[in-house]
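Please predict the structure of the following assembly.
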Amino acid sequence: MLYEEMNKSELLAQYEDLKKQYNDIKELKLSLNMSRGVPCAEQLEISRSMLDIINSDVECVTIDGQDCRNYGIMDGIPSCKKLMADVMGVTPDMVMVGGNSSLNMMFDTIACFMTASPSEGCAPWFEVKNRKFLCPVPGYDRHFGITEYFGFEMITVPMTENGPDMDVVEELIKDESVKGIWCVPKYSNPQGITYSDETVKRFASLKPAAKDFKIMWDNAYVIHDLTDEEVPLLNIFEECKKTGNLDLPIEFCSTSKITFPGSGVAAMAAFDNNMKIIKNKYKYQTIGFDKINMLRHVRFFGDLDGMKAHMKKHKDILKPRFDLVVNKIKENLTPYGIISYEEPKGGYFVSVDVMEGTAKKVVALCKEAGVILTGAGATYPYMNDPKNSNIRIAPTAPSVEDLSKAMDVFCVCAKLSAVEKLLEV
Amino acid sequence: MLYEEMNKSELLAQYEDLKKQYNDIKELKLSLNMSRGVPCAEQLEISRSMLDIINSDVECVTIDGQDCRNYGIMDGIPSCKKLMADVMGVTPDMVMVGGNSSLNMMFDTIACFMTASPSEGCAPWFEVKNRKFLCPVPGYDRHFGITEYFGFEMITVPMTENGPDMDVVEELIKDESVKGIWCVPKYSNPQGITYSDETVKRFASLKPAAKDFKIMWDNAYVIHDLTDEEVPLLNIFEECKKTGNLDLPIEFCSTSKITFPGSGVAAMAAFDNNMKIIKNKYKYQTIGFDKINMLRHVRFFGDLDGMKAHMKKHKDILKPRFDLVVNKIKENLTPYGIISYEEPKGGYFVSVDVMEGTAKKVVALCKEAGVILTGAGATYPYMNDPKNSNIRIAPTAPSVEDLSKAMDVFCVCAKLSAVEKLLEV
């Protein structure tokens, strides 16, 4: 029976029961964490043998004979540019391989445009006093953090099942001070939504008032499937070629959730104009990133097929966790009509909407019971979820056993908060 | 006999002889490079076994049990902070360990102050339209590159045998738009000069008009001795504690020339106020740098003593090269009175001043004969050496045999350029 259809005495009965359950849970003194998209220990183990790839018996040379141990090759070794190009579906000349973090490359890209002209004839964004950035919501807190750090006013765009609401985007970009948009086009963070063909085509067809409008295309989950179905995503660069909008997209990806989060390889791709501005910064910033680690990755995978085969091992580890989360929700929350969610086909999260106005309470109750969730509101700029309902569940890090316990706690807290809320009215 | 004391016919005889020597050299079709401070193949080999330190049989955990393969620990693993703190003579809490490049950390630091307030109450440097930076000359071209990229007017400060001319520095910092100075305090690039105690004390006592004046203390050659004598350098932080100038110095170092230039570990150190501003940037920029590589370094060296023992191996490889360069100069150029230089006790370069007005010619002649030198003027901002006399010789990369050939070419070119110059008058 839906909570909303219960009368007061039914709700009170629920409340007493849930309160008791909650107090029992607190007695367990749990310490569980579902807050961040962190691979679990098992996932790290499947890349363990990568640590043997480079050792003192092998030569660390590129295919064109350069010593990876020494200085140089600012934009990455050729074989790694090729591998990351294949991951992104672009040509190697469009790729710059960086250090261990695509977040760092995104930060550096925005930082670059803050002080250098982001497009011919345009002022550095630092000079644009009312600079704005579009943020599809719910979205990734670390994206919002970067644009907040650099003083952008962040404007939210609602997500639909096909990606950001493009009607809204097309309206907002009529403002010349709107300089870009954050996108996670495949298995979006946190909803796991893959942008539809129409969405990608509309992105490629945008006519922003700002000549220096950039689409930050964070393809963090490009091959991070949770099912045997590879959900297709149109290639933004190919679409932009058709529309002539070559300066719009800048794509990012990394192996952080393929090999090791702390020691992966990050890369970015863009057409000439953007890459020229970005490389003109990098050439002052560094002599080159860690080429031994690039070589380690290339030799470990061989090619994109090798990488995809590796991803199946991740899927096998993660699938039961995601199934568990979804099943717990279906079983414990759906019957009461207090939750909505998308079942993700890839990525690292399950995004749920609990009863409006209760997300913060749910997170606080969980915390008090020893279960850490991503802060309520974190999926919105300025931590401001106007409906106070979205919660990002990150099921990857805990063991299945711990996850099961944590989800039980979550379900009790979601119900308790909902009942409390209804009783207040 | 000094060239300057020769009469015209003596000079002409020299000219004919040198011209012939030069043409003979060109016939050899050499291809040698003395342009960059790049470790040679032998040097890379002494760190080869570091590649075995981390493999699939070892656990990648920090001393406090955190998995180095996963996300987190933004400012570096504790053991690596300790190691780099010992290298710099500071406490670990003052240290941030970064990626593979201290140049990158320096760039990031200047970039940070471009858009964030560099000191309480001060405007970001982007807003300081006539921003200036002090550049001791001769100096490091990549330092100058960073401040040029960010639009600073670079003001040169002459180097003395004790470091930058502090009378000049003390005068220039009366201008509030002067925001900082580049320093390589030990075995300076390119002269190999170590700042005297008085110089360091005067740095620590500076009273710049700019409240946000920063000393960029690039301790790139902190343990890079070329003799058995460790040339002492006063600790800038200790001196600044005495004067209360805590916000002046920011120190940088790396293992690029200790282990692998492409895959070392970089670090920076500063007192609280600077570190707070810088870490407030890094926390948006990255979740953490490559901790496996930090662990690899810590386990390879054990401690600072282990690192210093390793540096002796570098010294043994490099000393003959530096001796060769100095001996060739003494033998072939000193007798003619056309060269001045410092014999370095550490670092990576021999800085020479050829006859005024001839450096560009010398470099061009060398290039024509197949020997690449650092571009004349590179040791000055905007590539502008007003005397056109300084050349940075980088003897580390070539084999001793190649270096010997290259130095013979250099000596002939230096003499030929000098004689031509004298004949013009």
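Chain B has a mean pLDDT of 97. Chain B has two domains: 3-44+308-424, 61-302.
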